[in-house]
Prior knowledge:
By secondary structure, the protein is of the alpha/beta class. About 40% of the residues lie in helices and about 15% in strands. The protein has eleven helices and eight strands. It has an eight-stranded parallel β-barrel, surrounded by seven helices. Helix 2 (about 30-40) packs across helix 4 (about 65-80), helix 4 runs parallel beside helix 5 (about 100-110) and helix 5 crosses helix 6. It is globular.
Amino acid sequence: MEGKVKRITTRTLAEMKARHEPITMLTAYDYTFARLLDEAGIEVLLVGDSASNVIAGHETTLPITLEQMIYHGSAVVRAAKRAMVVVDMPFGSYQGDSKAALHAAIRIMKESGAHAVKLEGGQAVLDSVRRIVSAGIPVMGHLGLTPQSIYQFGGYRVRAKDPAEAIKLREDARLLAEAGAFALVLEKVPARLAKDLSEHLPIPTIGIGAGPYCDGQVLVLHDMLGLNKDFSPRFLRRYADLAETVKAACTRYFQDVKNRDFPSLEESYE
């Protein structure tokens, strides 16, 4: 059909890597924002478990449930006409039991309509990755700083600066690619390591705090729009200051109602 929008797929991302075209990814959690990101041309919408932080107000990503991820995912899918929608598998849905992981991934795909799932970790989750991929479900990996393991790490510091940890990360990246992952998020790792991985891995890398050499970049929407003012890592570039814009608009509304300036007679019905 002429004029039909062409969906971004795993093959699209592989082709973009091959021709050195940067991939754009942003988080999305609801229909309204997802529609705007889709219209802006963003290739991948990540329904991140960061909804636990920026939507629900939790300290970590750990409390969010599978049902909540499916809820957010379905809202984003309804808005995305072109973008690929990837849904994070929440903590506890895939670690240690590959059968349970497959069941959770199937639920995400069937109930949200998502196009892929994302999970954190390397060798420890390979059985889950293989089982999910074998069922025909695309899997995006995530290495480096993995927020679901934050209590194990003891903080949000840069990962793989130590040579031994860098070697382990390289091996995990290789294993994930061999297991069938179609892309890999690299979070808060040295830029030189991300560059080397991006050059040698057969799958696209998506960086967040991993320097300019990855095949693509991702940010949390609420952070880059300036809605979340409490989070200011070095890698974050704010493209707007919506917190102040929203606050100013609400203050004007408050004052107009208190002063009986809103609604006016022109804004009323006879």
